[in-house]
User: Fold this.
Amino acid sequence: MKKMYRQWLGIAALLCHITMQAAGNKAVVTGTVKDTQGNPIAGVVVTDGKNVTATDRQGIYMLDTDPFRQPMVYISTPADYVLPEKEGVADGFYHYQDTSKVENRCDFILQKRSKQTDDFVFIPISDPQAKNEAQLDRFRKETVPDLIHTADSLKSLEVVGMGLGDLVWDAMDLYAPYRKIVSNLGLTMFQVMGNHGFKLLYSDMERTADPENGYGEKNYYEIFGPTNYSFNIGKVHVIAMKSIDYEGKKKYVERFTEEQLEWLKKDLSYVPEGTTVFLNIHAPVANTTVEGGDNVRNANALFRILRPYKVHIFSGHTHYYENTLPAAGIYEHNIGAACGAWWAGHVNRCGAPNGYLVVTVKGDDVKWRYKATGRPADYQFRVYKPGEFETQKQYVVANIWDWDIAYTVNWYEDGVLKGAMQQFDDEDQDYLTMKKGKRTGYHTRHLFRACPSKQAKKIKIEVKNRFGEIFIQEVEL
Assistant:
């Protein structure tokens, strides 16, 4: 009798599966969002990565879904509530659906903040990109202690971290140890998916004919959750999106799919125009260095959606540092990689040091400064004496990685102001030295030079950023 009962259960499950597939896997997910006291929370945005809705006055939501294509349901945490996390890694804001059911229930509980604050620190970290245990150990021993020190220095402020993709280098077995490494750092760590984050054998979910047979994001999903999501903190709406259209076996195109862009429109429909938005992606949208490009192909479609907002885009992928203003109200920070040039040494292809960005937010006021791994916070540029930069032997050269058009760069000879340094385009000497002199053609535009006189004894370089902060280095000749 028991054997027959089990057989009937198996047949029923199979019929349910067949029925869902015949109906295009149509299903519904319902649930509630409440606080820790059991009070309903209205207006919380809920999504499965395609469809989007919000909770009603009773904290109830209902969402049409396809649990095979959209395996998770998740919320955009409101600013009045603590960001859900487990051991310092974002967690608990998503639930998996049961693919055997045509109706799922997913409930969420949020903790009300004890005090509302508009001030916080946001730390994007690009491309840890560990290929093996040795590289992961460098991240553990170099980047992480520096990050902990930075977070500890900001104890009075809430700190949110964001891994900008390529957390590992095609090594799915390193996802779990990576998560352990970024746990309990004194911040809440979120993640973005990069091109090296997919399981090589499979294409991504949208391209996969039958997700049950495997898809590229599966390992990432299991460790970190969804790839297109949002949350709110202070006055800022934070978004993370996959900017890689993955075909499988290392073939991909940097672009957003139409489904992703539609999801972004729906997500932003709940955000008032004029709000500050932080968009976190892996591949950049506007890197102008041809050799380091790899930009998202349909960036203009993205810009049209973002037009009503004040936007900062944080990206990685290139292992180049470049700041750009690609459209009105949009500033892209294509930051240096934590691994630099793939753990070959201590600099990126443009000469920017391994590191991460520290973004200080006070309401709608956003300021930032790059933090070089193992260096003091005010280390914002590198100086080469005459003779040290192979192609510029007569010049003092400065590599100012966080440069943008609002910077001023002046130089002094023996205490006398000589004027602005000349910007030029070349390969960085520190990178070339790391590569044992082998030229690669990777030019950068954040290089500046000045030609001192033969009698000069001391050169001072004064760099002022867009916030009026001044950084000075002096060299004896």
In short: The chain has three domains: 27-110, 119-372, 381-476.
